[in-house]
Design brief:
Number of domains: 2
Structural class: alpha+beta
Shape: elongated
Number of helices: 2
Strand content: 15-25%
CATH architecture of the largest domain: Sandwich
Helix content: 10-25%
Distance between the termini: 23 Å
Radius of gyration: 21 Å
CATH superfamily of the largest domain: Immunoglobulins
Strand order of the largest sheet: 1-4-3
Length: 133
């Protein structure tokens, strides 16, 4: 699920606002004339970022504010983080259960990537949701 676009707003001043941002997660950008953050984050890692706005009135005032953005996966079962559940998601869990890749997708929280996690993944791929049964 995507929560973008998201608008940053400001009040005060009498001129045109100009927006910029530093530290946005890859895949996101801010409209310099609108303050609207758009895009699709390329990572699930949150990122502190700074938004700056300059008002083009006689004072040319500027303000800066830091934000923390938590980018969450669309589903815990979307282990490849490609926006949908695919055979590649199931294959990654199988590989982890067999020990051929890092075991990071313990979907049921029992401390191991195993058949139970594969069953959750298959259930999710079939439309049954991503939770321990």
């Amino acid at each position: 699920m995507s929560y973008f676009p998201a608008a940053i707003t400001a009040t005060g001043g009498t001129g045109v606002y100009t927006w910029s941002a530093k530290g946005l997660p890859n895949g996101l950008s801010i409209g310099s004339g609108s303050g609207v953050i758009t895009g699709t984050p390329a990572t699930t890692a949150g990122s502190p970022f700074t938004v700056a706005v300059t008002v083009g009135d006689t004072d040319s005032a500027s303000a800066h504010r830091s934000f923390t953005l938590a980018v969450l996966p669309s589903s815990p079962c979307d282990v490849k983080q490609n926006g949908s559940l695919t055979v590649a998601d199931v294959q990654l869990i199988v590989n982890q259960a067999l020990g051929t890749s890092p075991a990071v997708n313990d979907l049921n929280g029992d401390g191991a990537v195993d058949v139970a996690d594969l069953q959750i993944e298959i259930n999710a791929a079939l439309g049954g949701g991503c939770s321990a049964q």
